[in-house]
Amino acid sequence: MDPLQLIILPCDSTLVVMHPDVAKLVEAGRIPQNVGERLSEIAPGKFCMHKSWGAGKVLDWDFSTGKITIDFEKKQAAQMDLKFAMQKTESLDADHFSAQKINALDELRILAVTDPVELVRQIVESQGGTIKFDQLEREIIESIVPEADYKKWWDKTKKAMRESHKFTVPSKRTEPIVLRCESMTPAEMLVADFESARDLKGKVKALEAINKHVDVLKGQEEALQRLTHDINEACTKGRKIQLGKVLELLVGRDLMLEQVEQLEISGSELRLADVLTMERERITESLKGLPAATQRRIYETFPDAFGDEWKNEILSVFDEVGSRGVSEIAKYLDDQNEETLLLEHLRIAIKNRRLGPDALVWVCRERKKVAAPVFDLETGNSVLNLLERDMVADGPSRSGRLRNLLTADQTLISDLLADADDVEARNFGRKLYQSPVFTDLDRKSLMARVIKARPETQAVVTGGVKEEDEDATVSSWGSIEKRKGELEHLVKVLIPENVKEISVARSYGDLKENFEYKAAKDMQAVLSKRKHQMELALSNVKGSDFVGAKTDVVNIGTVVGLIGVDGTEKEFTILGAWDSVPEQNILSYLTEIGKALLGKAIGDTVVLRDLETELEGTFTIKTISAYAK
Question: Where is the signal peptide (predicted)?
């Protein structure tokens, strides 16, 4: 039986130019018209697509045996029955991308390097103008771009595609890439990019592209008005959830307004100043991470937003806004001739230990320039104080950059100690040496810098400081015994318990993924540092019962009566380093108030900061009496 007589296909009205050999068979009545047309679609030299083997090019056929040979992507020189090939393949136009992969693969590989955007355009066009990410990957990976190189290639190509504005490139893989109509103007493409962005982050990027090519929008009033309306709508909807991105959009819109003279916004649309006023409680957190140029434009809007209060508002942001914001605020205040205001704010914040880590980093880095008037040993004490507070606080560390600066900047320690007296230098060295913040290696390195800058601090490390009563820490015998008890509990109870926890956690296996083991090891480091700190403190303490304290001036072991300028009376008891009971106004001589009072006589005036309100007040010493236990 003639193999061709076995082929039966449904009727198709599509007109196909038949192959000459097939046309003879149809004229002879050996095969129907529709079979001849389908057969002509897979004639030698034609292209087809197989579901499993990919695209292919027909090499040859044999009507006598009913066989056809096709070179597929995934199966070379595959021999099939004609009937099977007609049923299991689909025809491809010669200019279809899949056909080009068979016919001109080397050229496509070159195109992937020289013009990847054009390569993607051809692929998307062959798919009807739209394609999913996974489809695109199937067309390119291995056959055109090696799988190992694909991610890097695609990241670069995706960026170039967006910059070309020929495509809508979504941020989500589940959404299709769309080839835009070539009749769209550049202005229409830019606006379409903004409109098609699904989230505020995408809209911010689209607006950045618009501002880079803003000249093409000049004269396009309809597109511009539509764009400003869309920006306002996006900002209104996103203000409560993504305030930072809304601020970026408004800054970008205002930049566009400055460059396009004929563009104006209506009175009902959001202004940057209005948003700052409405969201003043959330501004600081929203500014973190924004580009420096964007932050600068926002700070320049503070006078419009807050009127006469703008300086206080910008200084309240300064301490917490992050490294970029700190630098930009400092530059802006300098430009406004408000450098003195900033320095006074820094001086008070450093003294009261309120300055944030990024602001302290800025002060240290600018110590030879604008921050020189406020940079001294108090800055160093503030740094150590903040590092220790951050270490014991819950939550993630905020002071990593500050700690890294202290350890990496080779001249910072010597600059901090440059104007300190001998006692101040020794106290700073002791505090640094006892700090649990640093690893042993970092502590040794830092102390070496301290000793190099101020050799008299050598005793802090060698232990000679114990013999110098005037430099020893003083505390009551009761407080010393309490500390010894805490150390004993640490050594005999907490540390052994931690060792057991480590042993149990190690038995769970897979130490890289073992959370319990990691937590126990972290606690081991904390306990070890605490033990070192407590032993060091106890080795450098001098016990006292405060009997016989001299009362000609304020000494350790005296009760001080004070009267303020407004008639307010206060009384403080000045005792040892570990004897503070703030709620009873019993204070260590090492506290801020203790240091301010020591050595003062009756009739002397002092400026003290209130423990609760943080406000400063001027007081006169009225009485000094000996402490009675």
Answer: none
Nearest in space to 465 (alpha carbons), one of 557, 558, 537: 537
State the residue for tokens 């950059």. 401
- What residue ranges of the chain are covered by domains with CATH 3.10.50.30? 558-626
Strand partners, 608: 617
DSSP 549-592: ---SS--TTEEEEEEETTS-EEEEEEE-TT--BGGGTEEETTSH
Does residue 464 surpass a pLDDT of 50? no
What pLDDT sits at residue 462?
Answer: 61
**177 sits in which H/E element:** strand 177-179
pLDDT in tens, 441-463: 888 899 999 999 999 888 776 65
Pick the CATH number of 104-183 from 1.10.10, 1.20.120, 1.10.357, 2.60.40: 1.10.10
Least Cα distance to 605 among 613, 596, 614 occurs for: 596
In this structure, what DSSP letter does residue 490 have? I
CA dihedral 356, 360, 362, 367 (to 10 degrees): 160
The secondary structure of residue 170, as a DSSP letter, is -
Cβ count within 10 A of residue 159: 11
The CB-side HSE value for 450 (13 A sphere, CA atoms) comes to 28
- Asked whether the CA dihedral 28, 29, 31, 34 is positive or negative, the reply is positive
Please provide the CATH number assigned to the domain covering 473-543.
1.10.287.180
For the domain covering 3-98, report its CATH number: 2.30.30
**Cα dihedral angle (62, 68, 71, 72), rounded to 10 degrees?**
170
Burial 179-196 (b: 16+ CB within 10 A, else e): bbeeeeeebbbbbbbbeb
Domain limits, CATH 1.10.287.180, in the chain: 473-543
CA 614 to chain centre: 33
Q: Whole-angstrom Cα distance, residue 437 to residue 472?
A: 22
Cα distance between residue 29 and residue 595, in whole Å: 116
For residue 311, what are the contacts with CB-CB under 8 A and spacing of at least 6?
A: 338, 341
Residue 10 pLDDT grade (very low, low, confident, very high; cuts 50, 70, 90): very low
Q: Tell me which of 3.40.1160.10, 3.10.50.30, 2.40.40.10, 3.30.450.40 is the CATH number of domain 558-626.
A: 3.10.50.30
Question: Span 136-152, mean pLDDT?
Answer: 92
The pLDDT, as a whole number, for residue 468 is 41
